[in-house]
Specification:
The mean pLDDT is 92. The chain is mostly helical and 107 residues long. The chain has five helices and no strands. Helix 1 packs antiparallel against helix 2 and helix 3 packs antiparallel against helix 4.
């Protein structure tokens, strides 16, 4: 839809600004939202790509509460693309990350 395309355009602009300013929190949000939008329009591979971009930034910023959701989203998209080995890998990591932060919703 036009709204999704507009969202992608705006997030790409925000990405450039956050990269220039070295603002990892902003980049995490942008990459997560780009993952959501791409997954919603059926571009699962691109969704995975953006979630995976967020992953090291989350670890670098010690935002461990955000980790289970991102790992779960990656795992789900790998399931949707029938890549069960990668899905299992990320979903297992989601469970471990959830336990580490006492997030019982993630597993």
């Amino acid at each position: 839809s036009d709204k999704n395309e507009l969202a992608i355009t705006d997030y790409m602009k925000a990405e450039k600004i956050f990269i220039q300013k070295k603002h990892n929190d902003g980049l995490i949000t942008v990459y997560n939202n780009l993952g959501v939008v791409h997954a919603a329009i059926g571009n699962r591979e691109k969704g995975i790509e953006y979630y995976i971009k967020a992953y090291p930034l989350i670890e670098a910023e010690k935002k461990l509460n955000d980790l289970p959701l991102v790992l779960n989203n990656i795992g789900k998209l790998f399931m949707d693309t029938r890549n069960n080995k990668e899905a299992r890998n990320y979903l297992y990591r989601c469970i471990e990350a959830s336990k580490a932060v006492n997030d019982h919703v993630g597993y």
